[in-house]
Design goal:
Layout: E1 5-11, H1 17-27, E2 32-38, H2 43-52, H3 64-73, E3 82-86, H4 92-101, E4 105-109, H5 116-129, E5 133-136, H6 143-154, E6 160-168, H7 179-182, H8 187-190, H9 195-211, E7 217-223, E8 234-240, E9 246-252, E10 261-268, E11 272-276, E12 282-286, E13 293-296, H10 304-308, H11 320-337, H12 346-364, E14 370-371
Helix pairs in contact: 1-11, 4-5, 5-12, 6-9, 9-12
């Protein structure tokens, strides 16, 4: 398959920040064309938005069922190859299920579903259909996150002892933070968790991605600081891994004044590393017997894994959108070859849902530690 892939989208319409990021990133390498979509719950507005994107007449659909029916009615060389789902959480499962059953590949925003039962059902369906499925944890697309994983795997840090991850935002500090905030603290739309589903899952995913170690047990303290909210807007979770490794996730969306403060620290018995999302070009290495080392993206000394995901020479900063584009690049290759790529999968979605269920149960229960099913 040497042609461009044809992409559809569900969600990502008016006032949707992440939808436009997906559209820009998918087109970055010139391998994908957005050709159709559902861009809101109002059919007229969806069609109007599609027109604004210069899609062909009739390719802005009323809802995802209408989209599937009409796409399947098109000749094979016109219909979409895959769909990107960027709706609120409660829609992910039903939309992904429907497109997989119709024979389409799927890119889906996190979290995968509303509960682990739905996540497991999607995992089984992906295996049954043989379709490609990418769960969009975009931070795994950063070159220096890949460098961090390579360093851990090489043994450069020695035996891992402790993993600390902070993800602090301030955008929900006020009671009314706007349309994008409202659904994230609504149980009917977001699910069993607010802050931890929104950004805590990024922390959980990046820990397991970089270290290769699954989280086995959790002890959680979830909080809701803004009166009237029914889901957490802040949380701290202690973690246990195999071989005595410990960890901590601190995630908050009411950390007043914070922007996108995502920090990963991994400590081994030989060395430690640190990566900051707001300074993503650098990976910091520390030890007790050598000067601090900064590995800079694209500079000599950067590993093959990081170089493969770098688009520009050092000194030309890359960031958030390029990380998105790296996942799309791997996904496009997977669709073309039929071999899943090195991106978060439906199985990672199962892990994140089990993590969420464990921390919510633990925070509201009497157990000191709660095991995560594997």
């Amino acid at each position: 398959m040497s042609r461009k892939l044809r992409m559809g989208m569900v969600g990502g319409g008016y006032d949707a920040f992440i939808g436009e990021v997906h559209r820009i990133a998918a087109r970055m390498d010139g391998e994908v064309d957005l050709v159709s979509g559902v861009f809101g719950r109002d059919a007229a507005k969806s069609a109007q938005f599609a027109e604004g994107l210069h899609l062909a007449p009739g390719r802005g659909y009323a809802d995802y069922k209408d989209m599937i029916q009409k796409e399947l009615a098109l000749p094979e060389d016109e219909r979409i190859d895959f769909v990107t789902i960027c709706t609120p959480n409660f829609c992910h499962y039903e939309i992904a299920k429907a497109f997989l059953e119709a024979g389409f590949h799927v890119v889906c925003e996190k979290p995968l579903a509303m509960n682990s039962a739905e996540a497991l059902a999607l995992e089984a369906l992906v295996k049954q259909t043989g379709r490609m499925f990418c769960l969009f944890h975009n931070y795994t697309g950063y070159p220096m996150v890949r460098q961090a994983r390579q360093l851990v795997a090489s043994g450069a840090l020695g035996k891992i002892r402790k993993v600390n991850v902070e993800y602090s935002l301030g955008w929900l500090a006020a009671p009314n933070a706007g349309k994008q905030a409202a659904w994230r603290v609504d149980p009917k739309q977001a699910g069993i968790s607010g802050c931890m589903a929104d950004i805590g899952t990024h922390a959980q995913n990046i820990i397991e991605f970089i270290t290769g170690m699954p989280i086995l047990e959790v002890s959680a303290d979830l909080a809701t600081f803004v009166p009237g909210r029914r889901l957490d807007d802040d949380g701290s979770v202690m973690l246990r891994f195999a071989d005595g490794v410990r960890g901590l996730i601190f995630a908050s969306e009411v950390a007043t004044g914070e922007e996108d403060n995502f920090i990963v620290k991994i400590y081994g018995d030989k060395a430690a590393l640190e990566w900051r999302q707001m300074e993503p070009e650098n990976l910091i290495l520390r030890s007790n017997d050598a000067p601090v080392q900064i590995i800079h993206r694209g500079w000599p000394g950067t590993g093959d894994e990081a170089m493969r995901f770098s688009r520009l020479p050092a000194g030309h900063p890359e960031g958030f959108i390029e990380a998105f584009a790296n996942l799309y690049r791997m996904f496009v290759e997977a669709v073309r070859t039929g071999v899943p790529g090195d991106y978060p999968s439906v199985s990672d979605g199962v892990a994140e849902m089990r993590f969420l269920e464990a921390i919510v149960a633990n925070s509201g229960g009497a157990e000191k530690w709660t095991k995560i099913p594997r």
